[in-house]
Design brief:
With 146 residues, the protein is α+β, with helices and mostly antiparallel strands. It has one domain: Nucleoside Triphosphate Pyrophosphohydrolase, CATH 3.90.79. Helix content is 32%, strand content 40%. It is built from three helices and seven strands. Strands 1, 2, 3, 4, 5, 6 and 7 form a seven-stranded mixed sheet that branches. The longest helix is centred in the C-terminal third of the chain and has 26 residues.
Length: 146
């Protein structure tokens, strides 16, 4: 079995979250394999940018998920461990990387996105991350007025 460490972002822009439709018609969050010498935070930021064109800042940790699948090209099981970060988009512009196999995507209202997302772990992750994001925004506002 191949074990891969990955990192990704749950990217918010106000009350919307960034999701992608992959080549298997699954709605997912942006993520990728952590390459040699890179930190998980660097990987999350770069994968969000590479897959969606979105510049985003990390707000908080979001948690971890994992899953297994059978790779037809490698002819063996692959186990992915993903470290997730709550992120805030710098603006609302995006450009889906179709050359990477993504069919569509963008910022969707939270409830709509949760219904669209294919995997239950990612649905829960978005829900919990949005709560963390709102706490961050409340803290940010409190700091401004302190």
């Amino acid at each position: 079995m191949i074990v891969r460490d990955c990192a990704g972002g749950v990217v918010f822009n106000g009350d919307k979250v960034l999701i992608l439709k992959n080549d298997k018609d699954q709605w997912v969050l942006p993520k990728g394999k952590i390459r040699n010498g890179f930190l998980p935070t660097e990987t999350a930021i770069s994968r969000v940018k590479y897959e969606t064109g979105v510049d985003a800042n990390i707000v908080s940790t979001a948690g971890e998920t994992n899953y297994e699948f059978f790779s037809l090209s490698r002819k063996q099981e692959v186990y992915n461990r993903i470290i997730w970060y709550v992120m805030e988009a710098i603006n609302s512009s995006y450009h889906i990387n179709k050359e990477e196999g993504f069919k569509e995507g963008g910022f969707y209202p939270i409830d709509e996105a949760i219904d669209m997302i294919t995997h239950n772990q990612e649905k829960s992750l978005v829900n919990l991350s949005y709560k963390k994001y709102l706490e961050f925004k409340d803290y940010e506002i409190d700091e401004i007025y302190a």
